[in-house]
Amino acid sequence: MSTAANPETKPAPPPVETVRIKVDGRDIDVPKMMPDWQGKLQPTTMLQACSLAGAEVPHYCYHPKLPIAGNCRMCLVEFGTPMMGPDRKPVLNPDGSSKIAKSVLPYEPGTPRGAIACATPISPGMEIYPGSTATRQMREAVLESLLINHPLDCPICDQAGECKLQEYSVEHGQATSRFVETKVHKPKQVDLGPRIMLDDERCILCTRCIRFTKDLVGDDALGIVNRGSYNTIASFPGRTFDNNYTLNTVDLCPVGALTSKDFRFQMRVWFMKETKSVCTSCATGCNIVIGSREDRVYRYEPRQNDVVNASWMCDAGRLNYKWIGRDDRLAAVRSSRTGARSWPAVLSEIAQTLRSAPRGSVAVIASARQTNEELYLVRKLATHLGAMTDSVPREGEGDRFLVNEDKNPNTNGARLTGIAFTEMGIQIPKIAQAIRSGQVQTLIVIGEDVTQHGIDSETLAKVSTLIVSDILPNETTRRAHFLLPGCAHAEKRGTFVNGKGRLQRFLKAVEPSGEARPEWEFLKELVEQVVGPTGYTTIEGLFNQMAKDVPAFAGLEWAGIADLGVNLAI
Amino acid sequence: MTFTVPSELEAELNELITHYPQKRSASLMFLHALQEHFGHISKEAVEWTATKLELQPINIWELVTFYPMFRQEPVGRHQIKVCRTLSCALGGSHTLHKHLCSRLGLDSKKHGIQTTQDGKFSVEFVECLASCGTAPVAMCNETFHEAVTQEKADAILSECR
Fold it and tell me: Is the same domain home to A290 and A339?
């Protein structure tokens, strides 16, 4: 349930004009107009109508988010339209129903002539036969043609397991090949760009990659060169295919022609676990799927969410996962005071320190890369201790497509939970000053190297108690009196609020290294020891409690966020 | 080496653009004109054309690689085109092609246009030259030759200087 919904002021939606057609003999009313790749209403196509009727039409070149090309021919279907008499009135059957003229070859009336479902609009009374024998034969013939020069190197192909050629061959292909001639050989291992490798022999020339980079990214870099069976996808000689969205062409490629240099030959796709998550590289919060196996992350892929990232993500965000598995990850909890090396001992030592700290002598800097739940717990702690709080702003370059200038994934979350003000970072100089003046004795840092962000090591040395949680070692963690190893987003569950105020949740893909624990777990224990009982043990319970306490999340429940998130009324 | 188009040619091409509702429609005419002037279409010529027509080089490169008549590399001073479409093929165009190649020291089995080492002659097969009744036919530069026997072929070669 979206909290942004405001039913009173919304005009009633106009009635949708429908058209009655038949799909495989079943009547169905479908909208006359449906959104095209840009969301503009266009006459409904046979493919869209079949999809509404529950009959999936196989396709390669068609993609709902790309302009229609109609070149692969895989979506050919047999169809018919109401027969018209010389008086331009429908010819009726004895039972009063419209007589249907099936589309046939003009010179061979016994042979059905299919139409490409992706680009043919429906008309009233039309009958589509996606399940007919003629349609099946058309699919067989198209697949046979597509496989003529295909190398069939599936055993070593990265696409194997998620390849539309394989899938459609199983569903619609023939068991034997009639091709006895020599296959045309085309360039292999073409270095298309810094992140993309192309195998032209596997390519079926669907032009999805060309259309994506031209029409969505605005970098008209790819084309088809040469002629006939020598057709190949290429960039202009000497120019590389290098924009921040090139890796989306790897997802778009229905076959194994375009492969990611980062992922190729790393892992067979069927071994990987897929976890729904959110990209943390900027405030856009692109929805992603994390591919992992045995607690190692192998790739990020965009996950469709039409209100956030459609089906895309930027290359920089996609490749920003390697730090999760770094060897130097902080893996041990420690107290340099007593030498304690277990979570219970270190946490109770911290709790003791905090309980005895005079009000106002504690300050907190918590990263806007932490989850709402964690920041909410930090806020609880800070309120109890009368602590100043802030987060670190992280500005960078943005673009007009998906990249946000704010490189923190949860800037809005930090504001809504009350950790940071609208102008993030405004408190940091004050905290630094309070440390230098001796007012602040205890500093809690969650997920930031503050020596890089306004509190230099000299100032940091003045703090008598430095409590630090982080993922990777840095100057702040080295100086910590209490070190609490935390988790990457891929290792825990939680929620972020993206730059446009959409609350999105992410799930756990892999186990953290060593003794590292999700920050919300140990923060909850600290809150219980310092502030008082919390009454929940799970992230669900924590979120639901937060929703009761934080006005922006009012009325929400963990389960209600679902996979695609909800817009907050902020 | 920088690519420069003489000002008269550029003026001619600028005028050409005005013939079409869209700039890109002039692409093929540009390529013909550039090939006529430079003898072949270099990568620089492709980039120059793309800039002139407000396109990306790949858009022009698709055309250049599609049509075999566009030369991507320099070819011989005299270009001999032998027709190999049905009537000429039946009328002995392959024998004619082989004869020309062996006279010029070229490999008749190689695909595409062949050029002698001295850069004087190029020989290639082309599709129909539209004179099926007088097969085999060939063109030497802009001159059309009908019923080309081996003797006639030798005469054509010796006329080229």
Answer: no
